[in-house]
Design brief:
The chain is an all-beta fold. It is about 5% helix and about 50% strand. It has a four-stranded antiparallel sheet, with no helix packed on it. Strands 5-6-7-8 form a four-stranded antiparallel sheet, with no helix packed on it.
Length: about 200
Amino acid sequence: GHQSDINSARFSPNGKQIVTASNDQTIRVWNLSQKHIAQLKFPEKHASKQVEPLEKIRSLDGFLSISPNGQRIITPTNNNTARLWDISGKLLVELKGHRNNVESANFSPDGKLILTKAYSDVTHLWDIKGRLLLRINGHNANFSPNSKLIIATHGKTAGIWDLNGNLLKELKHQDYLENANFSPDGKRIVTISIDK
């Protein structure tokens, strides 16, 4: 098992695996019988020859993203990228293009697309093969349930975008927007703002 504290654990969407992240710089995949299936490790080093900073692993609770079919996992790195793995621990592709460390990522409901967001940077839309499709001026982006729209917050505004990068609608608040998301049926949107 892990050699240090576990700080995050999640079921895969299909409920067949458990993914854990630890301060030992690894993410591990388990089956429901607690049998270890795979290990995803952070091998890259800075000039100071240090491995991934512990704060990166500690922050994985909000980052561990597992595809809807349970076969893919996205993890952050300390070099402004995210990595896409298969459930066996094989690295499939590195998502490169952000100017800062990636802080969140999520799969579309159909599992064919990925959104990544970096600190003080735009949101990037990727296909499952790691091709950058679109840059969206916004943070805290989420897919619609049918995977055809994206809502992203930027300042006091939430923008609804199609997958071609067309801004379809803007929802404005009086103050900074923290997040926005679609209802499960895709017919409504909820926004969170610091305004009164």
